[in-house]
Design a protein that fits this description.
With 250 residues, the protein is an alpha/beta fold. The chain is built from 8 helices and 8 strands. The protein has an 8-stranded mixed β-sheet, sandwiched between helices. The longest helix has 29 residues. It is globular, with a radius of gyration of 20 Å.
């Protein structure tokens, strides 16, 4: 993708240090200092024009969000989107959002191990040619990096419109022995999942009735323990309901 930025765009981004981060290296391990709190940090890798990350930050003020992309023009557009969304709440400066211009290939230089709690991968480039498989953001080499950066409550939430990328990703997650949940092959088949924030791409695909594929990968030890606890509780409830149904039939 090549985006033609406006004249003076770099100067404009440099003038927004409270929102835009052009060099993550000095903040590695210090992102909570940037936000001024100890709230969980969620990251969207490849945020595009920023609709998702901006709405997520406004809906969840007690979580810190970082949107990552490598193009100045997308950072600029995401900044405008974020300011507009927060302005609707009477807030001039998004308090829990950072827009990071960076190449995801070097993600380990941006964050310390355990510094993140959730990674969002929304409609990532599918890189359809086999020779480009290593560039896919769900390739095992990336998943290994994510696993290092996520804390004990760490999760990955993944959405795509590409069936081939989804199949590839299922195999990658399985290869890395990650626990999957909430797998969907047509996320909005019955009706839009309004509790989930939509990206720009997602809204276009929904309008066309195209399937959206989604899953969540549970990685952190505490997240896994909670997952297993919920799974056991659900199984017990189903067993009790089955027993009640049998008694009613008798």
């Amino acid at each position: 993708m090549r985006l033609r930025g406006r004249k003076g765009i770099r100067e404009s981004l440099e003038a927004q240090p409270e929102l835009v981060v052009l060099d993550a290296a000095p903040l590695k391990g210090k992102w909570r200092d940037f936000f001024g709190n100890d709230n969980p940090i969620y990251v969207e890798l490849g945020m595009g024009k920023g609709r998702f990350i901006s709405h997520m930050s406004a809906r969840n003020p007690h979580i810190n969000f970082i949107g990552v992309d490598m193009y100045d023009e997308l950072i600029r557009r995401a900044g405008e989107k974020a300011h507009a969304i927060w302005a609707e709440q009477g807030v001039s400066q998004p308090p829990n959002l950072a827009l990071l211009r960076a190449n995801i290939e070097q993600i380990e230089t941006m964050f310390e191990p355990g510094e993140l709690e959730r990674i969002h991968l929304n409609f990532s480039d599918p890189w359809p040619k086999a020779k480009h498989a290593r560039r896919r953001l769900t390739h095992p080499r990336f998943l290994a990096k994510y696993g290092q950066l996520l804390n004990e409550r760490g999760e990955i939430h993944f959405k795509t419109d590409s069936m081939s990328l989804f199949e590839f990703s299922l195999n990658s997650f399985t290869e890395m022995e990650l626990q999957l949940r909430n797998i969907s092959l047509h996320l909005h088949k019955d009706e839009p999942r309004e509790e989930l924030v939509f990206t720009e791409y997602e809204m276009k695909f929904m309008d066309k009735g195209q399937p959206i594929y989604r899953l969540e990968a549970v990685i952190g030890s505490a997240a896994l323990a909670k997952f297993r606890e919920n799974k056991l509780a659900n199984a017990q409830r189903e067993a009790e309901q089955s027993d009640q149904d049998e008694e009613t039939e008798d």
